[in-house]
């Protein structure tokens, strides 16, 4: 037996008085990797400043950048801007060698919000969420699956999770929505 | 029915009666009662039979340490639980409770013959009795022991309850909500810290619930308790009752088990039965208190014999007198107060028997004022009464001599042998203990974790001492976390401080060899057993424990360990620290498997990764198999087909026309950067420099040791960008290995790795009609053999979807692998399947894929290799770039034993009869007539029925196989020896013509 979730249909997956879980529309995602030398040129090409502290985020227009490691960033942007990002980075490749790899379909994103959103995450995430400031994000795990956890407001989060792990993760969030509402 | 309830007394709801059944008889209790307190209120002490001797037993305690009153509870269908502690389980209307270990009834039990034969069942009984003859072990002894072992009956139905778990981070975790814990939580919380306070009982308060006479800061204990709890809640303290800290693990990780519904008649369906909390605490305060020790004397286990502190709890917390005529036997001051409380509630106290020659004079005066007889300097030498104690035998001890016996009539005997600090959780941390010779007990010493031990848990006695210590320990934790807490003063009235002495077995005038003086009630271990163990050569307490089973029951020796140690040390003539204390291990109290499993059952048992095409396969009747975390379509049976028939059909259809296969689980890694080709040269055995963009190559990955780790087809998209594929199971491992080399060995390389496994859905088309199907869908690419030959890669669109198209084959047929962004995988598959109908397109699963590749001699890493196989052993020497300066595994391959002749080499095997399919894993010998044990020279790695070859085929690793072509080998099987001929590994189209269509 195994959990089934339709990942091609964005929308509400679970909702209770405690929290709601929503599968978001697809976005363009890129993994950007570069050494210290290339960061300034890539920042200029992208029209933003790549954050340098792990967990920090920057937003410029529709493009969001999260620092995941000393040489690693996650970019989210609207699908219509994907080509622009590719070209911008390509234009500085010779001077700022890097890897820009599209992973738009590698993962899906669910939003978790509601009065007990933080509590809901404690069902599967071993991190201390009090130490995740609003406006930052972390690569962490949820019930055994690697995720990126974005804190957008005190009780609003996004989880990026690899597509094949999503049904497992979502099924626990659904269970949790009911469990927390019954408390 | 006698009523022992004291009107208006205790914390039970006198206006709210509750009915439940015990052994099918209906009893009435009150809301707030446990099974034990409710039965005691009805005058019932007999609640079970002991494990070995089937002796009648009643509750000896009032808490989770209970070894005797273990019952079966049933809350509904499938909701049966054996060995529930009657002293913990709360009652509700309709709860069904049954006694255990009795036949035919609790009051008349046949198994009690063991009790008459008790001289036979001595320590080491099993070791001595079940030794000979050896042949008896399997058929007689083991079944007998198994049926006798264990108390209660295992549940036989699926558990309909559900269980939960959470993580919790807290600055300070306080275990135990007695006075010390409450005060500690207050200190820490008022310093502004996140505080969590847990208690295993239904309500917070600990000792205060049993000592309402105390006044704290001028308030009666229970008034103070209520306002203090309200205050803690206001300060944001998370208070969790019915929550047991079951284990204390590394770096202040504490496991909590919270019982949520066992006390409810109709719980909310969404509420789990239990929740496991994984708590990470900045500081931990252990305020678990102390456990009362029984006195060890003949007949100390009869129903009605219980701990004095327990009697006090039953009276003050539950409003129940445990009897109407009590004898109190003690070596500690605390039991005197229990006697006074009971006397005040109307129980006649026959006598207070104190082992000490001169008990505290104020206590003696108080007893005399109440008209209670005091027998100081006495010992207890026996009890009588079949199902309930009816009298107790006591003797004066003078100058070490036990004088004449006196008999005291009673219906309950309340004993106290002192108090043992509860060191279980501290012991989990491997903190060291120090023997306190004065208190005759172990106390916490050196700590290994950021924790404090407060109150009775470190040997302090009295409410004021506990409150003060808790307050200070809470403040100490706050300071350790960088806060400066305010510390208030505490004043306590009507406190009951006290001291006591510790004993081994009480002295007796009777034959001590015949005394049934129990140390471990649950496992029926007596003082005599412990002394026998020492006489028979056990020296360490660990050996004594295993030989006698003392402390090995589900109560983990909460009552028995210290008495056991004292007796063993006495028998050995050594001080206790030299004999040692056994190690307590988690869980603190028995914990359900459900709580530990949490959400991981049924649909959520474990992560099952599925491809975007999985739903199509399921809808088309696929049978699945697990491959690492994935589930993959194994084969697609048509109605009436078995696996072999389905696979044969799939193989035939693919070779004849066209097969379609979901290869999405293949691992994929994108390698990008100016140094990408250099990285590839170092990582893989193959040379990559001359591989042109648009071309692909089979890549072989070794470990440092030179053995094959992974393989896959790798495409070069541009000069600086490679698309690696890995095995399904190897994807994560390979990426980790590559990152490891990159970060630790070659940080200078400008190249970066990204997992793209799940970015792409991969559809493999194989068969002579593969191009015919695909061509009309492809835009931006000439698919002809000249323009896009075997081992090519290109970016194009397929059915309008952006695609990375490989021309590659794992079947030996003309083949393509179409990679499209994962969201389009299912849609593309459906389009291809529909258009493929005119080619009789056949979806196939992993089994057919395995057969088709075996017919071509393509290896599967992990099946035809096992971590000891080099490229040369596997016939893949051609993939090793011999002129390359270096690659991972190059030096390993040069080791003499890896370069030696006659290693096990991968060859083909054809059974001589042309019919027998070999078993994968079967061992191979050269000479079937040699004596057993035969020399095994290899094993079968792959074996299938091959439609293309028209016979079974196999691959095997055989010693010196390459030089044995055409020779016969033998495979001994249970049904007979199979003969097979060694061949090459390619069974079909050896020239590879079919790839070139």
In brief:
By secondary structure, chain A is of the alpha+beta class. Chain A has helices at 39-46, 82-90, 117-121, 166-181, and strands spanning 11-15, 20-23, 28-34, 57-60, 63-69, 72-77, 98-102, 107-113, 137-142, 145-153, 156-162. Chain A folds into two domains: 11-26 and 106-182, 2-Layer Sandwich (Gyrase A, domain 2), CATH 3.30.1360.120; 28-102, Heterotetrameric sarcosine oxidase (Alpha-Beta Plaits).
Commentary on this structure:
The complex is a heterodimer of chains A (183) and B (997). With 183 residues, chain A is of the alpha+beta class. Chain A folds into two domains: 11-26 and 106-182, Probable tRNA modification gtpase trme, domain 1 (Gyrase A, domain 2, 2-Layer Sandwich), CATH 3.30.1360; 28-102, 2-Layer Sandwich (Alpha-Beta Plaits). Chain A has helices at residues 39-46, 82-90, 117-121, 166-181, and strands at 11-15, 20-23, 28-34, 57-60, 63-69, 72-77, 98-102, 107-113, 137-142, 145-153, 156-162. Chain B has six domains: 1-156, Ubiquitin-like (UB roll) (Roll), CATH 3.10.20.440; 163-290 and 421-493, FAD/NAD(P)-binding domain; 295-416, FAD/NAD(P)-binding domain (3-Layer(bba) Sandwich); 511-580, Arc Repressor Mutant, subunit A, CATH 1.10.10; 665-762 and 770-834, Probable tRNA modification gtpase trme, domain 1 (Gyrase A, domain 2), CATH 3.30.1360; 857-995, 2-Layer Sandwich (Gyrase A, domain 2), CATH 3.30.1360. Chain B has 25 helices and 51 strands. In chain B, the strands form 13 sheets. In chain B, strands 8, 9, 12, 13, 14, 15 and 28 form a seven-stranded mixed β-sheet that branches. In chain B, strands 41-42-43-44-40-34-45 form a seven-stranded mixed β-sheet. In chain B, a hairpin with a 3-residue loop joins strand 13 (243-249) and strand 14 (253-259). In chain B, helix 5 (179-190) packs parallel to helix 6 (221-234), helix 12 packs parallel to helix 14 (560-572) and helix 18 packs across helix 23. At the A-B interface, strand 3, strand 7 and helix 4 of A face strand 8 and strand 39 of B. Chain B: Residues 488-507 are annotated as: Disordered. Chain B: This is Sarcosine oxidase subunit alpha. Chain B: Residues 615-884 form the GCVT N-terminal domain.
């Amino acid at each position: 037996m195994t959990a089934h979730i339709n990942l091609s249909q964005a929308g509400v997956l679970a909702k209770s008085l405690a929290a709601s879980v929503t599968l978001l529309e697809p976005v363009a995602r890129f993994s950007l990797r570069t050494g210290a030398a290339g960061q300034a040129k890539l920042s200029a090409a992208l029209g933003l400043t790549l954050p340098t502290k792990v967990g920090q985020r920057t937003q410029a227009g529709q493009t969001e950048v999260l620092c995941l490691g000393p040489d690693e960033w996650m970019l989210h942007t609207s699908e219509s801007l994907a080509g622009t990002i590719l070209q911008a980075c390509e234009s500085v490749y010779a001077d700022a060698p890097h890897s820009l790899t599209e992973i738009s379909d590698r993962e899906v994103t669910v939003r978790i919000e509601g009065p007990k959103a933080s509590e809901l995450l404690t069902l599967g995430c071993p991190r201390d969420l009090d130490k995740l400031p609003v406006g930052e994000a972390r690569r962490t795990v949820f019930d055994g699956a690697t995720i990126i956890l974005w804190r957008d407001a005190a009780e609003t989060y996004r989880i990026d999770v690899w597509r094949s792990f999503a049904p497992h993760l979502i099924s626990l969030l659904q269970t949790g929505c009911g469990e927390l509402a019954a408390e | 029915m006698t009523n022992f309830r004291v009107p208006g007394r205790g914390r039970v709801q006198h206006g709210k009666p509750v009915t439940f059944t015990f052994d099918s008889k209906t009893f009435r209790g009150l809301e707030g009662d446990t099974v034990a307190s409710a039965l005691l209120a009805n005058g019932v002490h007999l609640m079970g039979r002991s494990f070995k001797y089937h002796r009648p037993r009643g509750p000896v305690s009032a808490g989770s340490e209970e070894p005797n009153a273990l019952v079966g509870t049933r809350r509904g269908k499938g909701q049966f639980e054996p060995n529930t502690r009657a002293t913990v389980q709360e009652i509700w209307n309709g709860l069904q409770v049954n006694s255990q270990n009795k036949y035919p009834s609790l009051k008349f039990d046949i198994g009690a013959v063991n009790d008459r034969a008790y001289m036979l069942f001595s320590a080491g009984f099993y070791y001595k009795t079940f030794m000979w003859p050896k042949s008896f072990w399997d058929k007689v002894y083991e079944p007998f022991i198994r049926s006798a072992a264990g108390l209660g009956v295992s549940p036989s139905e699926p558990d309909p309850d559900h269980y939960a778990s959470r993580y919790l981070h807290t600055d300070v975790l306080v275990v135990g909500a007695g006075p010390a814990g409450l005060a500690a939580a207050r200190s820490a919380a008022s310093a502004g810290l996140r505080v969590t306070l847990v208690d295993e009982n239904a309500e917070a308060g600990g000792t205060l619930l049993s000592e309402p006479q105390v006044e704290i800061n001028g308030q009666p204990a229970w008034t103070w308790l209520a306002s203090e709890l309200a205050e803690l809640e206001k300060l944001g303290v998370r208070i969790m009752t019915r929550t047991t800290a079951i284990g204390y693990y590394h770096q202040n990780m504490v496991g909590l088990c919270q019982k949520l519904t066992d006390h409810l008649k109709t719980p909310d369906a969404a509420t789990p039965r239990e929740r496991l909390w994984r708590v990470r605490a900045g500081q931990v305060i252990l305020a678990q208190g102390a456990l009362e020790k029984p006195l060890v004397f003949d007949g100390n286990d009869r129903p009605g014999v219980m701990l004095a502190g327990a009697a006090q709890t039953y009276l003050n917390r539950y409003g129940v007198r445990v009897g109407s005529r009590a004898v109190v036997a003690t070596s500690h001051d605390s039991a005197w107060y229990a006697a006074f409380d009971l006397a005040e509630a109307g129980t006649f106290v026959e006598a207070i028997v104190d082992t000490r020659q001169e008990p505290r004079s104020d206590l003696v005066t108080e007893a005399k004022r109440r008209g209670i007889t005091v027998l100081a300097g006495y010992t207890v030498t026996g009890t009588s009464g079949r199902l309930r104690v009816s009298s107790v035998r006591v003797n004066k001890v003078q100058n070490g001599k036990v004088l004449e016996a006196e008999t005291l009539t009673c219906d309950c005997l309340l004993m106290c042998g002192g108090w043992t600090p509860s060191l279980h959780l501290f012991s989990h941390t491997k903190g060291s203990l120090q023997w306190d010779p004065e208190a005759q007990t172990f106390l916490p010493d050196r700590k290994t974790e950021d924790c404090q031990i407060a109150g009775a848990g470190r040997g302090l006695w009295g409410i004021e001492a506990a409150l003060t210590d808790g307050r200070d320990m809470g403040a100490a934790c706050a300071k350790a976390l960088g806060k400066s807490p305010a510390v208030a003063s505490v004043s306590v009235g009507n406190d009951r401080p006290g001291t006591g002495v510790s004993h081994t077995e009480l002295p007796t005038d009777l034959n001590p060899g015949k005394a049934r003086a129990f140390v471990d009630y649950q496992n029926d271990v007596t003082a005599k057993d412990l002394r026998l163990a020492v006489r028979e050569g056990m020296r360490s307490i660990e050996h004594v424990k295993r030989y006698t089973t003392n402390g090995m029951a589900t109560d983990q020796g909460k009552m028995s360990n210290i008495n056991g140690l004292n007796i063993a040390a006495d028998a050995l003539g050594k001080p206790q620290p030299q004999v040692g204390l056994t190690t307590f291990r988690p869980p603190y109290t028995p914990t359900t498997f459900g709580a530990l499993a949490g959400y991981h059952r049924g649909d959520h048992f474990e992560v099952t990764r599925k491809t975007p095409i999985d739903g199509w396969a399921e809808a088309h009747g696929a049978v699945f198999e697990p491959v690492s975390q994935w589930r993959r379509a194994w084969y697609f049976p048509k109605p009436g087909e078995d696996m072999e028939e389905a696979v044969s059909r799939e193989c035939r259809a693919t070779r004849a026309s066209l097969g379609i296969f979901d290869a999405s689980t293949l691992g994929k890694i994108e390698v990008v950067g100016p140094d990408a080709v250099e990285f590839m040269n170092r990582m893989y055995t193959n040379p990559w420099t001359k591989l042109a963009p648009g071309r692909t190559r089979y890549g072989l990955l070794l470990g440092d040791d030179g053995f094959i780790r992974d393989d896959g087809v790798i495409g070069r998209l541009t000069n600086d960008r490679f698309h690696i594929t890995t095995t399904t199971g190897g994807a994560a491992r390979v990426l980790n290995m590559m990152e490891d080399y990159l970060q630790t060995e070659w940080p200078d390389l400008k190249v970066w790795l990204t997992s793209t496994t799940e970015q792409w859905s991969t559809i493999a088309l194989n068969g002579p009609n593969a191009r015919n199907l695909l061509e009309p869908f492809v835009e931006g690419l000439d698919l002809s053999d000249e323009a896009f030959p075997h081992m090519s890669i290109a970016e194009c669109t397929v059915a309008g979807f952006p695609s990375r198209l490989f021309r590659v084959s794992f079947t030996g047929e003309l083949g393509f692998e179409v990679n499209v962004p994962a969201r389009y995988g299912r849609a593309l598959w459906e389009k291809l399947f529909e258009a493929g109908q005119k080619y009789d397109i056949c979806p196939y699963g992993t089994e057919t894929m395995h057969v088709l590749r075996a017919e071509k001699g393509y290896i599967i890493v992990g099946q035809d290799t096992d971590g000891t196989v080099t490229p040369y052993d596997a016939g893949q020497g051609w993939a090793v770039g011999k002129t390359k300066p270096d690659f991972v595994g190059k030096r390993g391959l040069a080791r003499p034993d890896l370069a030696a002749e006659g290693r096990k080499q991968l060859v083909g095997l054809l059974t001589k009869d042309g019919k027998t399919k070999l078993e994968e894993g079967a061992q191979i010998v050269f000479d079937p007539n040699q004596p057993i044990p035969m020399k095994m020279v290899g094993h079968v790695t792959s074996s299938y029925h091959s439609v293309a070859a028209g016979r079974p085929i196999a691959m095997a690793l055989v010693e010196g196989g390459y030089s044995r072509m055409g020779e016969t080998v033998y495979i001994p099987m249970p049904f007979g020896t199979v003969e097979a001929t060694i061949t090459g590994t390619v069974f079909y189209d050896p020239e590879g013509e079919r790839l070139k269509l």
